[in-house]
Amino acid sequence: MPLPQLRVRSVLPFALVAGLAVGAIGCGGGESVQTYAAPKSEGGKAPGAVEAATEYRILGAMYPAKDPEWFFKMSGPADQLAKYEADFDKLLASVSLPANGPPKFDAPEGWKTGPGRAGIVVATIRTPDDKFEVTVTSSIGGVEANLRRWAVQQLGAKDFGPEDVAKVTKPIDAKGVKGLRADVRGPNNPSPKGGPFMGGGK
After folding, report:
1. Angle at 95 between CA 78 and CA 191, to 5 degrees
2. Total of domains in the chain
3. Which residues pair with 125 in a beta bridge?
4. Which residues lie within the region annotated Disordered (predicted)?
5. What is the DSSP string of 4-38?
6. Phi, psi (rounded to 5 degrees) for 186
7. What is the C-alpha separation between 137 and 129, in angstroms, rounded?
8. pLDDT score of 118
9. Mean pLDDT, 10 residues at a time, the chain of 202 residues
10. Does residue 115 lie in a domain region?
11. CA-to-CA distance for 77 and 187, rounded, in angstroms?
């Protein structure tokens, strides 16, 4: 009986040494798997990632249509303005021009009418969520000149000529006056300093 016990004791060290040898070969032999963290640019996006370009938009109107004096204007990212477009058209159709003084209009349901500012804006109409604002201003220069200013100077279009007027406008039948609705688009943010889209300027 003592003999088997001696044999077990002698086999165990040998098995332990063999196991360690195999482990050393498995860990040290060949190439090991390595991991690394991919570098990221600012904002947590991988370098070289392509972002979709934002298109900006000015929704506007001019009254009277042929020789405009009064301008309604709302600006912002094109996709965001789309949800307000139906109410904006209702606003444009409600406009009337008194013999003296600024235009009269009916604000869409939930929209908030406010006072003018800076001696240029005679009235404001804000969307129900306060994200966007329509400004009512007076200007000179005719249809094409004002559209060119919106397209080139404010939205960053490369050019705007007489042939482009019909592409971005359509007539409006308002209350006792005909207007011209405008939908102008471009790559630049027309809002001052990229801030909230308050329509600002003429």
Report:
1. 30
2. 1
3. 113, 134
4. 177-202
5. HHHHHHHHHHHHHHHHHHHHHHHHHSSPPP---PP
6. -175, 180
7. 22
8. 78
9. 43 38 42 40 44 84 96 97 97 96 96 90 96 95 96 96 97 97 96 50 54
10. yes
11. 10
Does any domain span residue 57? no
Decide the pairing of beta strands 112-117 and 70-77.
unpaired
Q: For residue 76, what are the β-bridge partners?
A: 57
What pLDDT is stored for residue 200 in this prediction?
47
Q: Quote the pLDDT of residue 9.
A: 44
Q: What is the largest CA-CA distance in the chain?
A: 126
Residue range(s) defining the domain that contains residue 187? 63-194
81-86 contact pairs (CB < 8 A, 24+): 81/57, 81/132, 84/127, 84/132, 85/59
Residue 177 lies in a domain: yes
Provide the whole-model pTM.
0.71
Question: Measuring CA to CA, how many Å separate 176 from each of 16, 38, 104, 195?
Answer: 102, 64, 11, 36
